[in-house]
Write a structure and sequence with these properties.
Length: 327
């Protein structure tokens, strides 16, 4: 029982008309982890989340949550999960404290007033108990909606893009709230299109693209799976005649890319040995009397994982307006 995943998906598919939104995915979410579903807009993250929550039925495949079938035992599943609602307009005349009490009554918990007070403290909103949703900042609204999702002490909490649209400070606060949710014993499943969020907050992530799970592991293991540890970059204000083959043959190099225009060149070399590659690159520059500018090395990241798996750069749209298609 202990090793049994709390959520299990097998060959789950969902199509909208001719469009395959989720294309036969398998997932195992373990108890007590923060599990991230990461991917660009349109990857199928929300559809996947809503099928696990029992809000949308898959066309085929099986989904179990705490041993219950998400479709056939939908009522059981609903009782033990928490879903962060996106809508900020529900019950506009109620204060934060009153909203939490109302949800407590919905779930039939024994002391809704005390529970509301506890939850406000947990999401760091104690002094906002008398405020209505519209009087809260974006980050505070998100924290309140997480508190609302926690009223029934859920086994699993679901958060769909919880930090989209928040400023960096509010994002950090929300990450802390999410860590606190896990610490209180709930497994957390969240979606995000932010690479850094997945890397820093999640214990494990599934990377989705075009309806498929293209990788699933801890962020560290995904990055370790790359041939390179780092990327060495430099520019030159004179156009260079070096070839990618020549650069990829430098000691330690695993890949290379060079773009040259009249105004100069950019080069990027994936490397498993930063020092050896930089030394060789500087020797090459010396031998050709070339001056390199902006020489830098950056550790490999999830961006590099996405590039390696898809051949595409992950366009991280920080201010993306992610429309969630649920009315
Ligand atoms: N109800 C729907 N009807 C038709 N197409 C939909 C519907 N919901 C989502 N889609 C499409 O399915 C794809 C995946 O959507 P979604 O699961 O919302 O992705 P994500 O959350 O990763 O952005 C998108 O191309 C989206 O336009
Ligand atoms: Mg979505």
């Amino acid at each position: 029982m202990i090793d049994q995943p709390v959520i299990q998906l097998r060959d789950v598919r969902k199509r909208y008309g001719d469009f395959m939104a989720v294309n036969g995915i398998d997932l195992d979410v373990h108890s007590g982890e923060i599990f991230g579903i990461l991917g660009p807009n349109g990857a199928g993250k929300t559809t996947t989340l809503e099928m696990i929550e029992g809000l949308r039925a898959p066309d085929s495949g099986t989904i179990t949550l705490a041993g219950f079938d998400a479709v056939r035992q939908n009522d059981e599943v609903r009782k033990i999960i928490g879903v962060q609602l996106q809508s900020t307009s529900l019950f506009p005349y109620l204060s934060a404290q009153e909203l939490l009490e109302l949800f407590g009554h919905f779930y039939g918990i024994s002391n809704p007033v005390a529970r509301a007070t506890d939850l406000l403290a947990k999401v760091n909103l104690t002094d906002k108990g008398q405020s209505r949703m519209e009087q809260l900042s974006g980050g505070q609204q998100q924290r309140l909606s997480i508190a609302l999702a926690l009223v029934n002490s859920p086994v699993v909490s679901f958060l769909d893009e919880p930090t989209t649209g928040l400023d960096p400070h509010a994002r950090r606060n929300l990450w802390q709230t999410i860590l606190d949710v896990r610490a209180s014993g709930s497994t957390v499943v969240l979606t995000t299109h932010y690479m850094d969020e997945a890397e820093q907050l999640c214990d494990r992530i599934a990377i989705m693209d075009g309806g498929n799970v293209i990788a699933c592991d801890t962020p560290a293991a995904l990055i370790r799976s790359l041939p390179q540890d780092a990327v060495v970059k430099a520019t030159s204000s004179q156009p260079l005649e070096w070839t990618t083959g020549q650069l990829a043959a430098l000691p330690g190099a695993t890949s290379a890319d060079i773009t040259t225009a009249d105004v100069g060149s950019h080069l990027a070399i994936g490397t498993a040995d930063v020092q050896a590659t930089i030394v060789a690159l500087l020797n090459l520059a010396d031998a050709h009397a070339v001056r390199l500018d902006n020489l830098a090395s950056t550790s490999a990241s999830l961006e590099d994982v996405f590039l390696a798996l898809t051949g595409r750069t992950y366009a991280n749209t920080d201010d993306a307006d992610v429309a969630e298609g649920v009315a």
